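Long-time lurker. I teach an intro course on protein structure, and each term I like to show students one example going from raw sequence to a predicted 3D structure in token notation. This year I'd like something fresh instead of my usual example. Would anyone be willing to generate the tokens for the chain below so I can use it in lecture? Attribution to the forum is fine with me.
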Amino acid sequence: MAPAFAALADRRLAGVRAEFEDAVAKLGAGGPKDLEDAIEESRKAVEGTMKVLIDLDPRVQLLRRQMIDDLIRTLVDGGVVESETRPLLEGVSRVANSLASHSAAGEVRNTPRDLAAATVSAAATAIAFLAARLP
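-- Reply from a regular --
Happy to contribute to a lecture. Here you go:
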């Protein structure tokens, strides 16, 4: 987590830092809804980092659609990140879309703690990587 928190000290990532800190706090709380929320906050933090990078890098423009695939394609096509980084950047969103982001009709999902921890850790890695590419 240390590289992500170091990267998130950048004032341009203040909103992302709040989301990531919330993810870590929810993971620490450990209740069923907390673990689900940790995954969702991790997704928001990674996607938020991509949006900040797109906003600040003169080689790319923020798209009207801002789905994960659009964000990654923008960064790859703009030469900001390598195409091989796609799995690293989309992993957290894929887990969140399957297990946290969409309504479970009012029911709390049974999210395994190890999966939530792995997702928060994956988010930390993606955030540190992306933040290193900030202009």
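Some talking points for your students: The radius of gyration is 14 Å. The chain has a mean pLDDT of 92.
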